[in-house]
Amino acid sequence: IAGITQAPTSQILAAGRRMTLRCTQDMRHNAMYWYRQDLGLGLRLIHYSNTAGTTGKGEVPDGYSVSRANTDDFPLTLASAVPSQTSVYFCASSDNGLASTDTQYFGPGTRLTVL
Amino acid sequence: AQSVTQPDIHITVSEGASLELRCNYSYGATPYLFWYVQSPGQGLQLLLKYFSGDTLVQGIKGFEAEFKRSQSSFNLRKPSVHWSDAAEYFCAGVNSGGYQKVTFGTGTKLQVIP
Q1: Which of A10, A2, A9 is CA-nearest to residue A114?
Q2: Domain span holding position A21
Q3: What is the mean predicted confidence (pLDDT) over B35-44?
Q4: Does domain B3-113 have CATH number 2.60.40.10?
Q5: pLDDT-above-70 percentage for chain A
């Protein structure tokens, strides 16, 4: 079982370009999440999805969009990248939606640099 | 605001020494609390979690944490640290009940010296 895969592993992007970070899970989890990790700020939630077909905004959603067409995939799109979006992005999933007791399983991350 | 705080950004311990990483929480009711570990270049992995009941929680890799309501703390401990424990550790919390988002602390980076 692969768990959660993310692609690409890393990317350097020119400001203004559009970029989609991919996330796929094979655990049939209902909920999926996107976080960004920045030094001194920990992990901050960007967007989440409780189940296929639904999405919600997290702490820092501006400049990002997501879709959840099926259970397995949860892509994150930067429509027009800016340097402040330079970060490490983690995708995660959990079994039963945003239930408080659920363990979140994390992917290996995507390191994005916007120049 | 509901939050978790990790006051130590960086901690260095000698291999074989004991370890305690601090986490304080601020929630209206008793929260659910978690400790995650992130090895270099990896995603986060759950070490342990507390929901209710016994306030001393055992986790993987020999870690434990104690929930102390009077101190609003959930400190992570290990009696004897191994070099492979060098990583970044995140405390996380969420309001109990319903569908709530988890809030992560800013992390504590652990360095283990021989």
Answers
A1: A10
A2: 4-108+110-114
A3: 90
A4: yes
A5: 95
